[in-house]
Amino acid sequence: MRRKEPSKHTNSPDRRFTLSKSAILRGKRNFQRLFSNSTLITTPSVKLRFAAYLNSAAGIRVGFVAPKKTGNAVKRNRTKRLLREAYRLNQHILDGLTEQLNIELHFLFIARHTNLTFHTLQKEVVTLLENMRSRLLSNNSPF
Hints:
By secondary structure, this protein is of the alpha+beta class. Helices cover 37% and strands 20% of the residues. It contains 4 helices and 4 strands, in the order αβββααβα. It has a 4-stranded mixed sheet, with helices on both faces. Helix 2 crosses helix 4.
């Protein structure tokens, strides 16, 4: 079987880029907690809400949302699929962060538009992840 070439868009070590079901944010309570008490970072096409919780079971949970006002179900599902793929390819930006800070990190990507290209989404997801990482590392107060 032929080996796949590494992606030109990511510059991380040779490894599998997977997004497991256990890493997806689920449950009404988790979403309510995130919307009521979180930090917001925005770009022109995507918003990122995140919250860090002190927890010995350090880990990352991520959610993807496309509000109804952004278009019909087909467009919303495509946008969420593109967001998932952009995050999956760039999740290495957050490697080791939760273990280093001993936190559980919940965050949510919220699409602001549905007529987006993958290239645009990927650039904005990288920007948001790097911004979130730098904010968490520079924050000296308890979470």
